[in-house]
Design brief:
The complex is a heterodimer of chains A (445) and B (474). With 445 residues, chain A is α+β, with helices and mostly antiparallel strands. Helices cover 17% and strands 36% of the residues of chain A. In chain A, strands 15-16-17-18-30 form a five-stranded antiparallel sheet. A four-stranded antiparallel sheet of chain A has the order 2-29-28-27, with no helix packed on it. In chain A, strands 3-4-5-6 form a four-stranded antiparallel sheet, with no helix packed on it. In chain A, helix 2 packs across helix 3 and helix 2 packs parallel to helix 4. Chain B is built from six helices and 25 strands. The chains are: A alpha+beta (445), B alpha+beta (474).
């Protein structure tokens, strides 16, 4: 007769000393863990609720400018410095961790239209309403020495934007024409124009460093290659684009912020239809910037909010607003993917968390595991109505809410009219256009 | 493998690229998780117990004394009995982690002991008949709840004449069935009565819960078993199980039938599938009950003095507790307990700090009673009906179907090869994909129609054959 009875030695299951951690033997057998799905669902509900409880995105406000802020730029090499230009020609260099202004320069008379920092991190360029391009040093001059630009270039017309090449010493400005400059020369090495009155924004592609794109006042976005002598092609839309930004991870996508309250992501290989139309703002979109991961971007709008959109979705995942923040003119995503900076009309730069409910600072391994688990739970159950209702809920100021409802009514009315027209006319005479196709007027080579 | 949950999901044929990618990536993730769980299985520290007789010896003739001698001291000490003959036949319950044992005598003695160390935690005399025990004691008229020291915490007068109780651990619900025919659910964390269902089936004496989906099973004197959930006023299922009355009930995940020699008055099922049945004064344990073949010979048997009133298996040990007229006996049944427990769920060796943490986490994960249903995994399934309805509404609102696949538009810049004929050829290559679904549907409809026609013609034939003179034909 062979017998074996289950017998456990308590020494194997109880810790040896009180300074030791507890022993936790695990068994992943599903029969020992009934109700997997309802328990996970309850945990997901709790996780969404807690995420909303801890969603406090505002970090700090940088005070000091004496006029509305027109542009912000990040330092090419350092995460803790940014420069901002105001509408009275002042340029301030800020230290973000201490939230103080390191240096103030009276750069231009009139608006500072654009700032860009050089890739090496030693100098930065500013352009202003006084038709000049000035190059400044990043380090402050010594005691008693006056602030002088390293280099000043005088132009014939007002420049409205500037951007610097990723690796070489060339930069591009836009104004009446798109000019490519070499740092050593005082006249542009090449000039592109296409019969357009003026350009509002120009950007170098961060991956394909010879490609450029600019937003023109004839409601178009023009693509250039610096190796060619003429612009490549342009796509004309129904309303003008204010700014554009290239996706830092995917070389062929760029997103432009349009006056018709939407943002459009285009693939440069197929400019006839935008890849995605991002609709959520209730007023003109003024600025857009991508996160360094290339998966999301932030947009600033004339309605006093900033919104964070995933790159492939048509609606925003997050909206930030404050009573004190008026029309947001410029917005930047910090290079460590954690913060968003917004510069607005009322002379303040605000620092926000990109992920509203994340805990800042150093997290222990268990905290990290718990946050990842909660995020994954919310993602798994995101389609369930209760979870979706809580996760989607964002507070909006009263007039923005009203404006949103009004816009929805208007869009519904237009759609109904189009449907009625199609119903009562010869089948096939009224073409069925998807939302994406409606906004592009033409593509010109 | 035992870690597989559900079947693999096939990618539907006309799916868009993103849906395909999402399904494929989630399937690979779940496969990885299954493999890792299966790999961890090898590291489990303990093995299950077993009892194997010699060539001619029958396992059910081996007595408990012999087993207790053959096994080491700690296991041998698990066979003991308490002689408590004054207070009537005893009912018993083990706590979830197998640490504590609660015995209640019919004449009013309730005791809670830590049975491994034989240390008595509390004992008291309740001067009324005790019907069922759980740390909530269903006494003659009302339901009393005591704490670990034996101090009476609550006397719940709403729950009267309670005959049986079951605790649903993950919902923190106490389900009670009484002589009045009412099935009542009490939320013990909040203290509210969740549901009171009037089962119109007479006094409810036999009750059990299905631990896999928290459905309460009630047995009735006319041989039916009904299944209840707190969300509905009617039973979910009513099934006819026996020709006679249902006297005892135990539930587990898949229900099978087994053949018993004589009518059992008490049943209990262990964690590893050993079923014990008690008649009058003999307890018989059967093995491999959940298999397909009916089992006739018992695995073990034990005879006691006095009528048996309660049977319960200790959760993670090879021990069966028997409550009878003479008191309580603990019997060794090798192979009854699950050898490896999960410390985050139920831990017999937990400290008080661990217990506090576990309690907080369990309360946070407490499931709402609305989620109790026949299929616990229903939340993970796609609600086809509501999805289709919403899709229909969307199509109506927009005027076109947003999920429909775009028509294939061939590229026209093919360096001199894009003549009209070449374009038509390329279109034809892809055309079969679109037509496949349409053809499938038409074929299905046609087969269904043919089936219906056949059935109709059969019926007609039967009708035609019958005439009024049929009854005179042989």
């Amino acid at each position: 007769m062979k017998v074996k009875v289950l017998c456990r030695n308590p020494d194997d299951y109880v810790r040896e000393t009180t300074r030791d951690i507890q022993r936790v033997p695990r068994n992943y057998d599903p029969t020992l863990h009934p109700f997997e799905v309802p328990r996970e669902y309850t945990r997901a509900l709790n996780a969404t609720k807690l995420e909303r409880v801890f969603a406090k995105p505002f970090v700090a406000s940088l005070d000091g400018h004496r006029d509305g802020i027109s542009c912000i730029t990040k330092h090419a090499k350092s995460l803790s410095t940014i420069i901002s230009g105001a509408c009275d020609g002042e340029v301030k260099v800020w230290n973000l961790p201490r939230q103080e202004c390191l240096r103030t320069v009276q750069a231009h008379e009139g608006f500072v239209r654009g700032i860009c920092s050089r890739f090496c991190g030693t100098s930065f360029f500013t352009v202003g309403d006084d038709k000049t391009i000035k190059q400044w040093n990043w380090e402050a001059p010594g005691y008693g020495v006056r602030e002088e630009p390293i280099n000043t270039i005088l132009g014939k017309a007002v420049f409205t934007g500037i951007d610097h090449h990723q690796r070489e010493g060339t930069f591009v400005t836009c104004g009446q024409t798109v000019d490519i400059w070499d740092e050593q020369r005082s006249s542009p090495i090449r000039s592109f124009s296409w019969g357009v009155d003026s350009f509002s924004c120009v950007r170098y592609n961060p991956v394909e460093t010879e490609l450029l794109a600019s937003c023109a006042s004839d409601r178009s976005v023009v693509l250039y290659d610096t190796r060619e002598s003429a612009p490549l092609r342009k796509v004309i839309m129904q309303l003008r684009s204010n700014t554009l930004c290239w996706n830092p991870m995917e070389a062929y996508y760029f997103t432009c912020a349009n006056e018709d309250y939407n943002l459009y992501t285009y693939d440069i290989r197929h400019l006839d239809v935008p890849v995605t139309v991002h609709m959520d703002h209730v007023s003109a979109v003024l600025d857009v910037d991508y996160s360094p991961t290339g998966r999301e971007f932030v947009s600033a709008s004339f309605d006093k909010t900033i919104r964070i959109f995933p790159k492939d979705k048509g609606h925003s995942r997050e909206v930030y607003h404050t009573k004190r923040m008026q029309h947001v003119i410029c917005v930047r995503w910090s290079a460590d993917n954690k913060y968003v900076l917004s510069g607005s009309d009322e002379m303040n730069i605000r620092l926000w968390k990109a992920n509203a409910s994340e805990k800042l600072g150093l997290l222990s391994a268990r905290e990290k595991a718990a946050t990842h688990y909660n995020k994954k739970l919310i993602e798994k159950f995101q389609h369930h109505p209760q979870v979706r209702r809580i996760a989607r809920h964002r507070h909006l100021p009263g007039d923005i809410l009203k404006q949103k409802r009004e816009l929805r009514e208007m869009r519904e009315a237009r759609r109904r009219k189009e449907q009625n027209v199609r119903k009562h006319s010869k089948p096939g005479s009224v073409p069925l256009l998807t939302e994406k196709e409606k906004h592009v007027v033409a593509v010109v080579e | 493998q035992k870690f597989q949950r559900g079947e693999k999901y096939k990618v539907p044929a006309g799916a868009r690229r993103r849906l395909k990618e999402a399904i494929i990536s989630s399937e690979t993730m779940s496969e990885l998780a299954q493999k890792q769980a299966a790999r961890y299985d090898l590291l489990l520290p303990e093995d299950a117990g077993f009892l194997e007789g010699d060539e001619d010896e029958d396992t059910n003739t081996i007595s408990q004394d012999v087993i207790a001698d053959a096994v080491d001291i700690t296991s041998g000490s698990k066979y003991f009995s308490l002689h408590l003959s004054q207070f009537g036949p005893y009912r018993l319950d083990y706590s979830r982690n197998g640490r504590h044992l609660l015995v209640g005598g019919k004449k009013g003695n309730v005791a809670c002991i830590d049975w491994q160390s034989k240390c008595l935690m509390c004992e008291m005399n309740v001067m009324e008949t005790v019907n069922d025990a759980m740390f909530a004691v269903a006494q003659k008229r009302w339901l009393y709840i005591y704490d670990s020291k034996g101090v009476e915490l609550h006397c719940v007068k709403k729950f009267n004449d309670v005959l049986r109780m079951q605790f649903l651990p993950y919902h923190f619900l106490l389900a009670t069935a009484g002589a009045t025919g009412f099935l009542q659910y009490l939320d013990v964390s909040v203290g509210k009565e969740v549901a009171a269902i009037c089962t119109k089936m007479g006094p409810l004496d036999v009750m059990s819960q299905n631990p896999h989906n928290a459905i309460i099973h009630l047995g009735h004197p006319n041989g039916t078993v009904s299944l209840w959930s707190p969300n509905q006023k009617e039973p979910l299922v009513k099934m006819l199980c026996h020709r006679g009355a249902v006297r005892s009930l135990t539930s587990f995940k898949p229900l099978n039938s087994c053949f018993l020699s004589a009518g059992a008055s008490c049943l209990s099922l262990s964690q590893r599938g050993l079923l014990s049945a008690a008649t009058e004064d003999i307890v018989q344990v059967y093995q491999n009950v959940l298999g397909s073949s009916p089992v006739s010979k018992p695995y073990m048997a034990h005879r006691l003095r006095g009528q048996i009133w309660g049977l319960a298996y200790c959760p993670f040990e090879d021990v069966l507790g028997i409550g009878h007229g003479e008191g309580f006996t603990s019997m060794i049944v090798p192979g009854a307990g699950e050898p490896n427990f999960d410390a985050l769920d139920t831990n017999p060796y937990r400290s008080s700090k661990q217990r506090q943490e576990w309690e907080v986490k369990a309360l946070l994960e407490k499931m709402q009673p609305e989620l109790i249903g026949l299929d616990p995994g229903q939340l993970s399934k796609v609600d086809q009906a509501s999805f289709e309805q919403r899709h229909k509404e969307q199509v109506e609102a927009l005027g076109f179907d947003p999920l429909a696949k775009d028509k294939f538009k061939p590229k026209t810049k093919k360096k001199g090869r894009s003549s009209a004929g070449a374009i038509e050829k390329r279109k034809r290559k892809v055309a079969h994909e679109d037509q496949r679904d349409v053809i499938q549907q038409t074929v299905q409809e046609r087969t269904e129609r043919e089936k219906e026609l056949k059935e109709k013609s059969k019926e007609k034939k039967n009708l035609e054959n019958k005439t009024t003179l049929d009854r005179f034909r042989k």
